Fold:
Amino acid sequence: MNALWWLALPVLLLPIWWHRKKRVQDQAAPMATARFLPRTEPRQTRSWRWSDPLLLLLRCLLLVALIAWLADPVYPWRGDTVVVAQGADPAWIEREAAQAGLANAERIVLPAAQALGWVHVHEREWQSDARLLVLGDVPMPAARPAFGRAVEVRTRAAPSRKVERHVHIASERAAEWRRIFAAQGGPETVVIDDTPGAATSLIVWDREQAPPAALRASLWWVTHPSAFPELAKARTLGGLRYADSARGRLWHHAGWPPRDPDAARALLDDWQQLHVGPRPYTMSSQAFAADTAADAPAPGGALRGILLAILAALFVLERSLTHARRR
Amino acid sequence: MSLANTALIAHTRKLDLVIRHVLAGLGHGIHAGRERGAGVEFSEYRAYVPGDEWRRVDWKLAARADRHFVREAERDSHVAVWLVLDASASMAEPSRSIEGLDKLGYARMLLGCVAAIAQRQGDAFGLVVLGGGRVAFTEASRGPRHLQRVLAQLQRAEPGGSLPDAETLKASLHFAQSPSAIHAASDLLDWPSPLSIALTRLRQMRHDVRVLGLQTQAEVDASFASDLAYRDPEREEGVFRFGADLRDGYRRNRDEHFSGVTAQCRKNDMPLTLATIEQSPIEVLRRWLRRPGR
Structure:
């Protein structure tokens, strides 16, 4: 929308019009027999000569700078670039960049999850013939990304890191609960804390009395709803009742603890999917062609600072010169 | 022929060259030298000066004295020719069709021709230049040297200012003591004017007054560029505009003015020749010098 400000450029005609010289009286040609003509009012014609050309130039520049500031232009200044997701193997990066012919291109290191979004937001900063390569363990976004320019993405899944999940079990049937957590597969390992700490993300509360007020965790699995008054108004999804409290989110199921391995695995999957979030999935390597339908993101005002400085300088010059001329 | 001649005037700075060209085109019959006829009595010898006709050199004396002498004869005519040039600012009016030609240049050339004819006829001739509110006299005299002097004065005349006032001009009329032929060249835009009063008075003093009114073709046709603003060179009256809507009014005012001038000249028996400066100077000169009634 900002680009519509460029339509205001005809405003430049105003100072140009004002700076035209007024009619000059001695332009009248002598005519000996003029006495045979009726006298007329001198016509107000303006000749195309400039009064104060320096001031005119300053005023035009001032207006252009103002319009440019409002229009917030993006100057395409970036050349060939390799965007590297953090944590990628440097040797692999070098190899891939050299293979693409971008060994000497500029490197930009970004968090893997933000790489594609950042490229999309800044895509107008690249020159039209610049090549853009994204390397690293880039996670697959929910929707297929579209770019206004050609972008090539080459990915390699990084070796998954071990993730620990701290669980505190407050139950008389602790052995049954431990058996459930032993079914946890994948890169995560579950660590059972004897006392809940800051790292504890899940508390299993298998007791009738209420927990101490200071005890907090992001998720509670509750077997006795009487201990948590918030569960009275809980909503139900497939037998699972859930509610939010000051201590954290509460889950309650009448059939807990689960009796068979399938139910235990389903519960662990739900925990992963609904509460922790899906595991990142590395996107496949692919090249995106320039998509004209892709919405160009609004410019981020990268040049506004410079333009504002120019605007202020021009304004000061224009005022000073006007004042000097008036003297 | 006409255009070639007028263009010649416009582009030649040497007045005597133009005059020689015009007089060559004029042919014979109008400037019959009187000194060749009977009744011319020898009066004196005088040293040859460049410009004298070779046939007037006394060759026998040249053989004896090894120098050239010219026989001066007694004139039986004492008519003085007076050339009156209006050099007011309005005479700078240029021809709108021929580049570099203006009324003053044209008048200058025709008066030069008259002076040359008078010189050939052996008449005395003098010059009066009216311009810038002043009167500039060149006394009447004879001979080729005087012709050069008069031509130089003509050449020097620049358009500017207005005509001298009636008092100044009246005080200057003493020049016409002997019977004179007065040739006045003007644009006649100021009429009545100090000049018209002076000419009328001279006519009443029984001098032969011939008036040449110079115009431009654009004035006659009422065809001026309409995209220009105009001003009167002699009056500070503001700005004028010309257009197709004003053409009829311009023509009417101008015709009215010049019919008045013509009537007054006829009433005072002063032959008036109206000519455009784009016309051939030979034709104009012939019309101007033609004896009235012929």
Observations:
- The CA atoms of residues 10 and 178 of chain B lie 36 Å apart.
- Residues 41-74 of chain B form one domain.
- The interface with chain A takes residues 89-93, 103, 187, 189, 219, 224, 228-235, 237-242, 246, 249-250, 253-254, 257 of chain B (CB under 8 Å).
- Chain B is about 40% helix and 20% strand.
